[in-house]
Amino acid sequence: MRMSMATLGKSVAAFGVAGALLAGALSFTLRDRYRSEAFLVAGRKVEPPELAQFVRMSLSRDSLIGIMEKQHLYARERAKESMDDIIVKMRRDISIAIQGPSSFEVSFDYPDPAQAQQTNAALIGRLMDESVTAGFAGLRAIEKPSTPQSPNWPNRTVITGLGLNAGILMGAIVAWARRPKTKPVV
What we know:
- This protein folds into 2 domains: 49 residues; 108 residues, EIF_2_alpha (Alpha-Beta Plaits, 2-Layer Sandwich).
- The chain has a 4-stranded antiparallel sheet.
- It is an alpha+beta fold.
- Helix content is 55%, strand content 12%.
- The longest helix has 23 residues.
- Helix 1 packs antiparallel against helix 7 and helix 3 packs antiparallel against helix 6.
- The protein is elongated and about 85 Å long.
- The protein is built from 7 helices and 4 strands.
């Protein structure tokens, strides 16, 4: 006896829908993250290694701790984790990307949109304070840090789509495993 294509299709579809629903529901357990962005322009061309060195110098451990304390960031984490672990987390939340020969974007991700914007402003202020001594004279902000209006993470549509695909794959595997075994004719 062979499994009909309709039965196979129903099984795969059921697993696909279940996967999408489960992934979509689980995506709501993840904390929203908001991104504040701002663009800076230097008075001259900026090379990636030079920018990396400037950022490392300007956003040192001590300066990040100062910003963190002033902005009251990572309160839950500070109660449980070491300061070094929290600094690593903060550095992951900061993004600096070259946008052109003399411009770059500074962004900061955080669960609270107002704090994301305020912290990004503090980061930019720190970079601008250090710019003169680091040879980046003429560094200026094109615009003030954006106030995020909607979360940039998690992307619930993508997560639900991944759940759908995983469910379809699982449904196909289960349908294949449950297929009737035929004995070879001797």
